[in-house]
Amino acid sequence: MARICFLRHGEAEDDDGSGDAARELTPRGRAQSSAAGAALAAIGFLPDACLASPRVRARDTALLACASLGVEPEIIEAIGSGSYDSLDLAAGRGDVMIVGHQPVLASEVARITGGSIRMKKGGIALVESGRLLLLAGPEELSLIAESA
Fold it and tell me: Distance between CA 107 and CA 13 in Å, rounded?
């Protein structure tokens, strides 16, 4: 059974009047995103596909994380609008990373696993066959990345 890794975008700047979709990652958010990718590579999660929200902070998170994972992000409009079924999006793609936003990410994990989680910015939830395999925040991912 394929695995889905849900990655919440890294820390982003406040809206400067350009709109929510244009919010960019902070330096900390860029570091969180890179560490997430490095940590996933270190634990052996190398996705066959990365599906990302078109919002700048999620798109850039995907690009930074994927630098360690050997895959190019594909922008999926529905992930940015919050109206999608992650199982449908992942179907037939092998292992998939979905880079998006709260509260939809946690809702999708709950729908698939039956468990309630909280995802920190820059954090991941790794799911396989209806089970939560790993839930890690940016601090844990950074430690994994540094030890690799």
Answer: 24
